[in-house]
Amino acid sequence: QVQVVESGGGLVQAGGSLRLSCAASGSIDSRNAMGWYRQAPGKQRELVARIAKFGFTDYADIVKGRFTISRDNRKNTVYLQMNSLKPEDTAVYYCNVQVRSDDYWGQGTQVTVSS
Question: Are 33 and 56 in contact (CB under 8 A)?
Fold first, then answer.
């Protein structure tokens, strides 16, 4: 089993920054992909960024240049540094861990960007 716990959400003004953290525990290691998704009210959950083994990263076009994903393999923790936040970034952000064919999700953390 894998446990996933996010932290770091909150309320910020447009143009501000937030850093999300996601700690995973259980049967995982640096080979497992970890990532961040988000879901705004009335919308489908969408990929924000993910980081795979060897540190390969992938970003949604709408966050490229503003968000940075990173990982501490010793702690099985992934971070999402979000800069230049916009009101349209408002959503619940979920951490995802992939273990073979299984997906594990955290409970989500709310990010609200005021204009």
Answer: no
**Cα(33)–Cα(40) distance, integer angstroms:** 23
User: What separation in angstroms does the CA of 40 have from each of 2, 24, 53?
Assistant: 25, 24, 28
7-17 b/e (C-beta count within 10 Å ≥ 16 → b): ebbeebeeeee
Q: How many CA atoms lie within 13 A of 35 on its CB side?
A: 20
Report the helix count and the strand count for the chain, using DSSP H and E. 0, 11
User: What residue spans of 47-115 are helical by DSSP H?
Assistant: none
Residue pLDDT, tens place only, 8-62: 999 999 999 999 999 999 988 888 999 999 999 999 999 999 999 888 999 999 9
